[in-house]
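Aim 2 progress. For SAM-dependent methyltransferase, the working sequence is reproduced below.
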Amino acid sequence: MLTVDFSRFPIAPGDRVLDLGCGAGRHAFECYRRGAQVVALDQNADEIREVTKWFAAMKEAGEAPEGATATAMEGDALALPFPDDSFDVVIISEVMEHIPDDKGVLAEMVRVLRPGGRIAVTVPRYGPEKVCWALSDAYHEVEGGHIRIYKADELVAKVREAGLKPYGSHHAHALHAPYWWLKCAFGVDNDKALPVRAYHKLLVWDIMKKPLATRLAERTLNPVMGKSFVVYATKPHLPRLAEEAAAQ
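Predicted structure tokens for this construct:
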């Protein structure tokens, strides 16, 4: 299940891509399939081990084109172990709502992104997320949980303040919002509740089969109740005089 729309955020073979806070690796895997040179970074050692295994399995199965590379590594989003201008593309999906210093994370992403490079940021959408918080304290009052809810204009403003130029946005995963409302209503750790199990089964079927009816339904509902908000932006090139001054 991809939150970033790669038709709006294309990845070219050879692109240097950082998937920051990669989690289980869903966006990193897609970039690898598209021929990129991928670095998947997360602070969770267990997830990095799993992503490493999947990268190896994808290579063995021939899922990535020749020239594509993939590395998974532990790291701190506030102190990225890369030189300036290291990447053509940075993706950070469903991560910033967990981090107290979100401005610091944005600054690090901008630092490692080359001028002219592109960034995709996704966070839980304000409306659906407010419902989850209202239904369950356990949903967000946990270690490593969500510590803030972004309004769309607030996130776009922070992206601009970091020195990036937003060029597009959209909402995603409308069909997933009711699932999380059910989880919050019946208990976030209660996967045995019948409504939760039934809706999860529906989502798995939808992800695997991609039927036209649910694709059209989600496309129609995304602007109203999409679970995630996605922003795309570029890092502007320095003005010529600034470039010359920096080189001196």
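Confidence is low (pLDDT under 50) at residues 240-245. This observation will guide construct design in the next reporting period.
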